[in-house]
Amino acid sequence: MSDSEGIEKLILSRLSDFVGYSASTSPDTLEGKVDVPLDRVIKLNANENPYGCSPGVLRALAACTDIHVYPDDGQQSLRRLLAGYTGVDAANIVAGPGSNTLIDFIVRLFIGTGDEVINCVPTFDIYRFSTQICGGTLVNVNRDAQFAVDVKAVKNAISSKTKLIFLATPNNPTGNAIPQKDILEIVETDLPVVVDEAYYEFGGETVLPLTASYQNLMVLRSFSKWAGLAGLRVGYGVFTPRIADRLMSIKIPHNVSVVAEIAVRESLADLDYLRDRVNAVIAERERLYEALGKLSLLKPYPSKANFIFCQVLKGSASGLYNVLQRRGILVRYFDTPLLKDSVRISVGKPEHTDALISVLREIEGS
Ligand SMILES: Cc1ncc(COP(=O)(O)O)c(C=O)c1O
């Protein structure tokens, strides 16, 4: 092939104008765009843990001498560790470099060209991303005005081509959880249902024990948020042993690193510390919610996660985002037909809340 245009012609036609996932802005890209030194930027745009990981993780990683050796492809000790945490058997678990990759492997396992995936929008965009890459058809079912899943509409959307239903609880970016009875009603359709519990530790509601009774229920979790390991990339899912086995067979070999396994081990050995930090985030979430509610600029929605979704009541979300960014505070903004002029603010430390509220008050008064 003599030129790049020739190669481009061979790209799968369904991917030639594929729209990728829009990831959060990294402070590294903000040189010259903010009025504060880059190391003072307050990052409230990716739902990371403002307290970081367990100090035991950092100590163990500094002492690790095994990174020249591939990790166990069968994830045996990692799966045993996760089994201890979740109370299911290791054979039910598959780990991945972030729960994103498990979403992707599940879609690869179930979805071929023309198969339908029910997606309760607005929600986490990776369900769309992986479905479209695999040639599946998205069947979007709108949530109601309070962002609750419309169970009746989900059931009405089921067709003979439906192969997968995604439910995020708490939902990103809206922060609300799905009542267990609603999840159960959808699981009782017997179709494969993925319940994404990436923010479980901040809300405390889980359907994980129900995986013992429902073969079609798959539950995903992450170490990115509660355990402060977003940069290391580790998540896991709970499945029937047969589905876990199939996922293990299609996953990329050695995909969870040696250091990720160490980080999981040390995190689980330091649960009291991590739970204490999670409780601090939950307390701060409630304080932030109250403070945001007192502003006339924003309408915050109650949250069971480590972020708060808000409607922008004056001006545009992009305008607010830009002013906050200039002042060194990063948030996520949305302006789509389903999420008009809204922002998602991650819960930070108390000083981050204070800085944010003070800038928002200034904007309000200007
Ligand atoms: C609902 C939801 N699921 C899954 C993920 C992926 O998390 P990770 O790949 O870091 O485990 C995220 C990340 O933001 C999320 O919001």
Question: What's this entry about, in short?
Answer:
The protein has 366 residues and is an alpha/beta fold. The chain has helices spanning 4-8, 55-62, 76-86, 99-110, 126-133, 151-157, 180-187, 200-203, 241-250, 258-268, 271-293, 317-326, 350-365; strands at 42-43, 93-96, 116-121, 137-142, 162-168, 193-196, 217-222, 235-238, 298-300, 307-312, 329-330, 332-334, 342-346. Helix content is 36%, strand content 16%.
Supply database-style keywords:
366 residues, alpha/beta, seven-stranded mixed sheet, four-stranded antiparallel sheet, 13 helices, 13 strands, 36% helix, 16% strand, globular, binds pyridoxal-5'-phosphate
Q: How would you describe this structure to a colleague?
A:
There is one protein chain. With about 375 residues, this protein is an alpha/beta fold. The chain is about 35% helix and about 15% strand. The strands form 3 sheets. Strands 2-8-7-6-5-3-4 form a 7-stranded mixed β-sheet, sandwiched between helices. The mean pLDDT is about 95. The structure holds pyridoxal-5'-phosphate. Pyridoxal-5'-phosphate binds next to helix 4.
